[in-house]
């Protein structure tokens, strides 16, 4: 398959998955998504992430790219999830990004703080690399789920700001039960 076509197909697939994540600044409260029973992480806190725990559960080894303290416009990500209307047990994931752009054409090239890709994890296991702000997740297991998205540079470095990974986490209680 031609590399440009392969990239386009991946981007379209990722766009659909990213469509499942909450928007930046928005919170998926149970009032908005009563069927999802969402317990969200610390959205809105400076640094847009969580303490420097290992965000990945497999795959390629990544180093960490520390964003300098006081950096004027650090990147951020927020997750928004919606149940898919046509596929039982599936979710649409949407990402709201701040000061970050997906750059599939720059993968393995110059490391930049405000461009690269994202990683999607389900219960600590890496599902895929994302180059778009939406993604379709199906065949989800029953029970509690943790969905995590981290931002990485073009050189596969996990972004960190003020001691926290640039990421967001959403916990779903009793999905599909």
Give the CATH topology. Immunoglobulin-like
- Biggest sheet: strands, sense, closure? 9 strands, mixed
Strand percentage: 35-45%
Q: Class by helix and strand content? A: mainly beta
- The CATH class designation is Mainly Beta
How many β-strand runs? 12
Distance between the termini: 40 Å
CATH architecture: Sandwich
Strand-and-helix sequence, N→C? Answer: HEEEEEEEEEEEE
Uncertain regions spanning at least 5 consecutive residues: 1-58
How large is the count of helical segments?
A: 1
Could you say how many structural domains there are in total?
A: 1
Query: What general form does the structure show?
Result: elongated
Mean pLDDT score: 76
The CATH superfamily is known as Immunoglobulins
Fraction of residues in H or I helices: under 10%
The radius of gyration computed from the alpha-carbon positions, rounded to a whole number of angstroms, is: 15 Å
Structure description:
- By secondary structure, this protein is mainly beta.
- It has one domain (3-175): Immunoglobulin-like, CATH 2.60.40.
- The chain contains 1 helix and 12 strands; from the N terminus they run H-E-E-E-E-E-E-E-E-E-E-E-E.
- It has one helix at 3-18, and strands at 38-40, 49-51, 64-67, 76-83, 91-98, 101-102, 115-122, 125-130, 136-137, 143-153, 158-161, 164-175.
- The strands form 2 sheets. Strands 1, 2, 3, 6, 7, 8, 10, 11 and 12 form a 9-stranded mixed β-sheet that branches.
- A hairpin with a 2-residue loop joins strand 7 (115-122) and strand 8.
- The chain is elongated and about 40 Å long.
